Amino acid sequence: MTDSRHMARYWDERARENAEYFVDNRLDYKSGAYGGDDGDDFWSKGEKDFDVLLETLDAPALGSDDTVLDIGCGVGRLSRAAAARVGRVHALDVSAEMLTRAKKNLADVPNVSFHLGDGDSLGAIGDDQIDVVVSLVVFQHIPDPEITYGYVREIGRVLKPGGWAAFQVSNDAEIHQREYPTPSLLQRVAGRLRGTMPKGQDDPAWRGSAVDLDRLRQAAADGGASIERLEGAGTQYCLVLLRAGA
């Protein structure tokens, strides 16, 4: 098991290395640009990803008075998208370095509050305080699925009665066990000196883990919630709509 202190250190290092790439590795590591002809930049792509998450799950409409919790906010991309639609956003991350960048990026967004997480709970958030929880490409990087189940129980705790969550988990164990081509020492050194090769991709905090969907359902129930919809079961991008009990 990789402890929360290791995860915090790992993501602090990745934030200092190339924060945007490690938030969205569809970016070119060196140029920071997307391939293809879509013309999207980092922030507009995040807005689209947020819409896809909600639309794929047929999630309820966000309300202008809603309070949203963004778990694993990184540099603030989903938090910015949510803040334009709701009353208040709580942005939480285990990495102090990511939060520093998020605060700078969202300095012009007054309805976002920032919280440093402890790596295995939502202790910064009180019971029944949140209308909506969102999280995207975060839980798949957690090395121990037991931590993810703990977060799901915590989501049930912080949601108001009838509140809901839309989030992504991995349900494909092979993805996390896959062997990647190993560059030679010379290639690694040359690539890192040129700033063309990312670091840390063999670390458990990047490789992450898959969840078992029956265990996920039980964790939701233990937190006083239920899973209403699953899309993409059996894949790395399994989307979950959860509802807290009334």
Automatic annotation (TrEMBL):
Q: Domain (Methyltransferase type): give its ranges.
A: 69-167
The processes (GO biological process) annotated in the record are: methylation
Q: Return one GO MF term.
A: S-adenosylmethionine-dependent methyltransferase activity
SUPFAM superfamilies for the chain: S-adenosyl-L-methionine-dependent methyltransferases
Q: Which domain of life is it from?
A: Bacteria
What protein name is recorded for this chain?
Methyltransferase type 11
Keywords in alphabetical order: Methyltransferase, Transferase
Q: Which PANTHER family match?
A: TRANS-ACONITATE 2-METHYLTRANSFERASE-RELATED
InterPro entries, from UniProt?
Methyltransf_11, SAM-dependent_MTases_sf
Question: Which Pfam family is one of this chain's hits?
Answer: Methyltransf_11
